[in-house]
Design brief:
Elements: H1 5-35, H2 41-67, H3 69-72, H4 81-98, H5 107-134, H6 136-139, H7 143-174, H8 178-206, H9 220-228, H10 231-260, H11 268-294, H12 296-312, H13 323-359, H14 364-392, H15 409-434
Helix pairs in contact: 1-5, 1-7, 1-8, 1-10, 2-5, 2-14, 4-5, 4-8, 5-14, 7-8, 7-11, 7-13, 10-13, 10-14, 10-15, 11-12, 11-13, 12-13, 12-15, 14-15
């Protein structure tokens, strides 16, 4: 049964909130902790890593709870809606608190505050995102319509990217830069997160659900083992691990590249967000056409190799380059990202439907949780690896956003490794793994 267009658009709007959180965590949080709170790179990475480990556990609990216990409480709204409704306010509050760290705390108390805010951030994200990812398999049974949903989600992700990369620096400047600027940005964007998540919640609550299988009676660990026996899903997880690791490595180093290689400040994100958005949106019809002509898997593989070729070219900035070359590279990153996101997201509900066919039970929430665990594991590893690598390279933090210190050559090498080399390697690896994915595009 197909879903209405209003349901598809309303569902996709939730991504504006969740991707704002994910984008801020990738682009801003590590930089904010080291350059404005004065926390060392290794400690900042460790704090983010601990909160993400918490998030992984929360994902599994929320996913299985929404499959089983919430299924008995579904009533008129559906089993995922209560989690979406609670997740929105928790997510918005945590976003505000994270970027409003008090200025009069000692280093120990400051680290404790940041960790508590990060754990609340992770909890709110899980409460919303895990049931959110299970919704597509429950409101439409048409595989092609799921691809349309994911294209809409990419558009929403692009809006979220503009919220972080363009509106974020504007708000930071408007509220006075420094810590005050980040606090003001957190308050405004927290409101945007809440609005987007609640719009999604209302729409999903009103959307009819397709018939679904009964929840599995198995225990938590047994359910995880069961879904991991789904070979297409397992391969999909490996592919997404490579993609997300590449993205986490790039984004954690992007502002460091801007400041210490390109001689830019946070306003570089405006430029990055604008050109990436143009590339992403302009190329969506092309990727959809390629998927229809050549299939999701082949198109996905092409996007992987294209992204690897573009991202490795960041190394050329070490020699200096005209601004238009940097802008063209960012535009092409947007084109490649568009293909990766649309093709990748559209495969997840396909693997969920396949799992229901082979097991006879509904485990969409568990599968969404396992996917979210991979997503959060890579998001945790990115800042941790980045922080440790920068620390070992001799990177010097600039507390309070002061005049950027002179960095040793080894720190610049570490920045290039994070922003170009590691992402390229993981993109090639993911494309090769994708050759083992066997589900077809047929309904």
């Amino acid at each position: 049964m197909p879903a209405s267009r209003a349901a598809l658009i309303g569902w996709a709007s939730g991504t504006i909130g969740s991707s704002t959180m994910l984008g801020a965590m990738s682009l801003l949080v590590m930089f904010y902790l080291t350059e404005y709170l004065g926390i060392s790179p290794a400690l900042a990475g460790a704090l983010i890593f601990v909160s993400r480990i918490w998030d992984i556990g929360a994902s599994l609990v929320v996913g299985q709870w929404s499959d089983r216990i919430a299924g008995r409480w579904a009533g008129r709204w559906g089993r995922r809606v209560p989690f979406l409704a609670v997740g929105g306010p928790v997510a918005a509050l945590s976003y505000m608190l994270l970027f409003a760290a008090p200025a009069d705390l000692g280093q120990g108390a400051l680290a404790a505050y940041v960790l508590a805010a990060l754990i609340l951030y992770a909890t709110g994200y899980s409460l919303f995102v895990v049931p959110y990812l299970a919704v597509p398999a429950e409101i439409t049974s048409v595989p092609q319509q799921r691809t349309t949903m994911m294209a809409m989600r990419v558009v929403a992700m692009t809006v979220a990217g503009l919220n972080v990369a363009v509106l974020g620096p504007v708000l930071i400047g408007a509220f006075g830069t420094g810590r005050a600027g980040y606090a003001g940005m957190g308050a405004v964007q927290g409101g945007i997160i809440l609005a987007a998540m609640w719009i999604c919640t209302i729409v999903v609550a009103r959307a009819p659900s397709v018939a679904s299988a009964a929840a599995s009676p198995a225990g938590s660990l047994a359910q995880v083992v069961m879904v991991l026996r789904n070979r297409p899903f397992l391969i999909f997880l490996g592919v997404k691990f490579c993609q997300l690791t590449a993205a986490a490595s790039t984004t954690v180093a992007l502002l460091y590249l801007a400041r210490y290689v390109l001689d830019q400040d946070e306003n570089f994100l405006i430029r990055f967000g604008a050109f990436q958005t143009i590339g992403t949106l302009a190329s969506l019809p092309a990727w959809s056409w390629l998927a229809a002509r050549y299939g999701k898997r082949r198109t996905y593989m092409g996007a992987w190799f294209f992204y690897a070729a573009v991202v490795i070219s960041w190394l050329a900035t070490a020699l200096g380059e005209p601004g238009w070359v940097t802008d063209a590279r960012i535009l092409l990153i947007g084109v490649a990202t568009s293909g990766l996101l649309v093709m990748g997201f559209s495969l997840l509900p396909d693997t969920m439907e396949h799992n229901t066919r082979i097991t006879g039970v509904g485990q969409e929430g568990t599968m969404a949780a396992v996917y979210s665990m991979v997503e959060k594991g890579t998001a945790a590893a990115g800042p941790l690896i980045g922080g440790v690598l920068l620390e070992l390279s001799g990177f010097i933090s600039a507390e309070g956003g002061a005049l950027p210190p002179e960095q040793p050559a080894s720190a610049i090498v570490a920045i290039f490794a994070l922003v170009a080399v590691i992402p390229a390697v993981f993109n090639v690896a993911g494309s090769l793994l994708l050759t083992r994915f066997t589900l077809t595009d047929a309904p």
